[in-house]
Amino acid sequence: MRYFLGLLLFCTFFTGNAQLKDSLDFKIGQMLMVGVSGIQPSENKALIEDINKGNVGGVIYFEKNIDAKNSYVKLKQFTNALNADAPLPLFVAIDQEGGLVNRLKEKYSFPKSVDAEYLGKTASLDTTRFYAEMTATTLAGLGINVNFAPVVDIKVDGNPVISKPKRSYSANPDSVAMHAQVVTEVMRKYSIISVLKHFPGHGSSRADTHLGIADVTSYWDKKELTPYKTLLKNNQVDAVMSAHIVNKKLDKDGLPGTLSKSIITGLLRKDLGYYGVVFSDDMQMHAITKYYGLEKALELSISAGIDVVIFSNNIQGSENRTVDTVHNLIKKLVKEGKIPMSRIDESYQRIVKLKAKYNG
To answer: What is the pLDDT of residues 5-25, one digit of tens each?
Structure first.
């Protein structure tokens, strides 16, 4: 029923905004997700103008956006202000995995969270469900509708970004899939979009893509795809996030996953049969910025099949990117024929469909 109400809402929007709907600017805008500044709307006047013009379709929160006092109310007001005059409901996102990757901390009076490894070791799906319920109800109350979780990477000892910070449920891909499915089921119950990450598998990496290239060619195992296959089979995939890892087993040219048509369109879409929204990992991570210019990274990622490109403005040492800069570059690439208009249309339709599903 919720889905049909969502479709009605979006049909009403499109009827009243047909010209906007058909605008290339608007379609590109829906493909952009950006970080926000500070802890209040007054620090984001330019961003709110971009949102209201349709030049931004999503925002992402970090801990820096949470007021230390009256945190819940202030963040809810922040979300309401960002969305107030948006021509289409925003993707409002956060990384709320639990454990170390946890923006809504207890010190701000949010509920306690635990890491995925702890949940995997308890081997209790009821415990996973309990913590997922607390997270989902909190996010829903704040107006946050996208959670970049659960992590479905396999635990491999020695991994500095997945195993060491205890972000994986298990070394067993079937166990990872079981816990992840509980999380996605709970999030759906509260109209939260779960984003599985990091495709096609970050568990075997031995380097941090925040800092530079992580080449998993010698270590990656096809079992890292098992959670995706299982969750797709069970119709439990709302969205997927790409990894910036290099895997020459999957892309002979050694392009990072986010920039690889072989990985995103070939493996994920054609081979595994997933045709929903794909979010990039942060395009300002050094695995991208140190080796590819902004324009080339945009051309490759969108051509590869990425639907939403993320610029968090939260990576130390990376240049802040204004909405205008990114938006204009994508438009230029389309006008020059380097990104087919059909790619923009495909992404736009996927985004609109997902937003309709979760805004009923």
So the answer is: 455 555 555 555 555 666 999
